[in-house]
Every structure is written in structure tokens, then in C-alpha cells.
Amino acid sequence: MISYPDIDPIAVSIGPISVHWYGIMYLIGFAGAYFFGMYRAKRSNGLWTPEMVSDAIFYGALGVILGGRVGYILFYQFPAFIENPLIIVRIWEGGMSFHGGLLGVIAAMLLFSRRYKKHLVDVTDFIAPFVPIGLGAGRLGNFIGGELWGKPTDVSWAMIFPNDALQLARHPSQLYQFALEGVALFCILWFFSQKTKPRYCVSGMFLLYYGIFRILVEFVREPDSQIGYLAFGWLTQGQLLSLPMVIVGAGLIIAGFKLKTFPKN
């Protein structure tokens, strides 16, 4: 067993103001997306400008925050929401959903694409390789915060998380997700998109591989206590929400290589 590095989740405190590592990880994600977006824009043959990249990051940030919060309430706290709809604004209590954030970003990119008269999928194909930066940073934030841990296990790298009431040795599933959803997914998408691919393919690769990685990690991740397993003693909400991503992602890749259309300004 490995000792959990008990890091204070508050990175900086100035009087009554506290800056949490989780918030810093969001900033790292957006900053990383901006940096790589600018890099790709310079090599886009005029299809993307620095202004477009800045606006896409801004739209995306709004989509992540609003969609992530609304998605968490609807997907994971719906009965509590029915009893008290005001919990949706209690952001200080925590709670964000990747799948809700994804829907929020798609909605935001739809608005962005209309503003700049671009095809929606050309936009999502462009930004998809940067998304894993934020996903990986967010999982590190979960790990530092000692939340969203894995199931009990006896593997040699198991950890006991300080916030776990049962104090059991568990899978550090946040680090698994950091490695898969962050590092591996970034490498796959970055190298896949180095040369211009047909429309739909990069977005499809993102959906396909994120869905696969998330489904796999859910087998060793503790399900949300208020939901538990949905069926069969192993199916989780995260797996159920990720399965359509795998199906749609595979469909987009097939469609992309069949249609062989390419981004247009």
C-alpha cells in the first residue's frame, strides 16, 4: 500500500479568501487549451485566428461550468433537485459532471459556430485535442481533494483516503482517469490530428476513446453513494452515460472516412 500524499486542498489563503487546487486545475485546463489552440491556429492556413481561439475558450469555459453543474444535478442529484430546485445554485457545495459539461460545451460551440459561420463539427474537431488537458487536470484536482476514490482493493499501490469514513485501502481511480482521460487521450488526439483529417473524425475519436476509458475505470471506481449501481451489481451511471459516446464516436469516425469532407472557413 502507498501512503496518500495528504495535500491541503486549499492552495492559497488570503484573509477570508481561499483558492482551492481544484479551481487552479480548471485554470490550468483553460490555459493549456489556449496555448495549444494558438499553436494549432498558426498552422491552420487561415481557418483559425487568435481571436477565434480566445472566443472559443471563453465559450467553452461557460459551457463547462454551466453544463457541468446542471448535468451533475440532473444526472446525480435529481431527486434532491425535485425537492429543492435551489440546490442547483449551491456551487460552493461542489458537484460537477463531465457529461453535463460535454453537453454544455457542445451548446456553447454551436453558438460560437453560428457567430463565426463555421460548421459545428469543424469547431469541435479543432478543440477536441485540447479537452484532455482540462480533464487530466481536473482528475488531479479530485485526487488532491481526496474525492471520487476507487473501490476497496489489495493491490500494492492502494491508498487510504483521509475523507473515507471506512478508511479502506482503495484504488486511486482519480490517477487512473488522469492517465487515461488526460495523458493517453491527449496523445491519441494530438497525434491523430497532426495532419488534417476528414470532418467528424477527430470529434469521433474523442467521444470513442473517452467513452471506452471512462467505462473501464468505472469498474474500479466507487459509484456515487446516492445512486449506487443501476443494474447487474456493476453498471454505474458513468458507464450508462458513456456508452452513447462510444456508439456516436464510432459512427462519426465511419461517417468521416466515408464522406471525406474537410474543414472550410
TrEMBL record:
The keyword Transferase applies. It is found in: Cell membrane. The chain crosses the membrane at residues 19-36, 56-76, 96-114, 126-145, 175-193, 200-220, 240-259. The keyword Membrane applies. Pfam families: LGT (PF01790). Its main location: membrane. Pathway: Protein modification; lipoprotein biosynthesis (diacylglyceryl transfer). A 1,2-diacyl-sn-glycero-3-phospho-(1'-sn-glycerol) binds at residue 139. Its EC number is 2.5.1.145. It is a multi-pass membrane protein. One of its GO terms (molecular function) is phosphatidylglycerol-prolipoprotein diacylglyceryl transferase activity. InterPro entries: Lgt. Keywords: Cell membrane, Membrane, Transferase, Transmembrane, Transmembrane helix. Catalyzes the transfer of the diacylglyceryl group from phosphatidylglycerol to the sulfhydryl group of the N-terminal cysteine of a prolipoprotein, the first step in the formation of mature lipoproteins. Belongs to the Lgt family. This is Phosphatidylglycerol--prolipoprotein diacylglyceryl transferase.
